[in-house]
Amino acid sequence: MTRCSQSEASVAPSVRGVALAGRGASDLARYTDYERYVDLRKVEFIAGAVAEFAGAEGLGLDVGCGRGSVSHPLAALGYGVIGVDIELRVDGTVKDGRLAFVLSDAQSLPFAAETYGFVVCSEVLEHLPHPERALEEAFRVLKGSGCLIVTVPNGYGPYELLFHHLRDAVARFVRRLRSSGEVGGHVQAFTLAGIGRLVDSNGFVVVRAANADFLSWLPLLRRWRWLGRLDCWMAERLPSALAGGYFLLCRKRDGR
């Protein structure tokens, strides 16, 4: 397994080599409400990371699970998954003994230490005033051999700059809206190096990282999946500063 550095130039070019027990993004789409190709690719990255660390079976957490868009595909692959969110928008019952949902804060998880083989934290950290607390909790509940999978938007990527930073700047300029310090509902803006430093300072090592997308927010790319595929192919080859977001696979640092 190759460890990537936490510099801006360290983005791994592809996640296609990860085995998914015969299931790729198109197959996993049956189990999620995601429609954009980049989101299906994200599920594929997460599933591949879990397979690499947890094997054929395992128990883990989907922290900030929302509607269960990641929880359901992982359960369909045979993993035991507990979806955690401060505001559940899914059925809270156990399904087939593999999937359950718990109302809880990512920064204070109601679980015992060193219990889970994986923790997913997808599109969550950018919404938290203190993301380090969520990472501390993830570290606490993970087994020593477990993995953390983080996905975040590039806080200075094309979409964020155009629709969030610029909009906020214009609003403040014309004084029609007092700025709250939030960027499109996000209270954190990460670069690849920035999210790498954050996970590193909370006891994790970045094993692998990948660019997510480039312009997949454009309506044309949402409509035709082949364009979304092309967009993600381009993102893999672009500097990380131009990517729309990042996928990171992390493990606990030895000796902590």
Explain how this protein is built:
This protein has 256 residues and is of the alpha/beta class. It has one domain: Rossmann fold. The chain is 33% helix and 20% strand. The chain is built from eight helices and seven strands. The protein has helices spanning 25-28, 37-54, 71-76, 131-141, 158-174, 192-201, 219-223, 225-237, and strands spanning 59-63, 80-85, 99-103, 116-122, 142-153, 204-211, 245-252. Strands 3-2-1-4-5-7-6 form a seven-stranded mixed beta sheet, with helices on both faces. Helix 4 (131-141) links the parallel strand 4 and strand 5 (142-153). The longest helix is centred in the first third of the chain and has 18 residues, at 37-54. The radius of gyration is 18 Å and the shape is globular.
Please sum up the structure shown.
The protein is α/β, with parallel strands linked by helices and 256 residues long.
Q: Uncertain segments of ≥5 residues (pLDDT<50)? A: 1-23, 179-183
Indicate how many domains the architecture comprises: 1
Q: What is the number of strand segments?
A: 7
CATH architecture: 3-Layer(aba) Sandwich
Give the structural class.
Answer: alpha/beta
Kindly provide the radius of gyration, computed on alpha-carbon positions and rounded to a whole number of angstroms.
18 Å
3D shape: globular
Beta strand %: 15-25%
* Average pLDDT rating: 81
Strand and helix map with partners:
Elements: H1 25-28, H2 37-54, E1 59-63, H3 71-76, E2 80-85, E3 99-103, E4 116-122, H4 131-141, E5 142-153, H5 158-174, H6 192-201, E6 204-211, H7 219-223, H8 225-237, E7 245-252
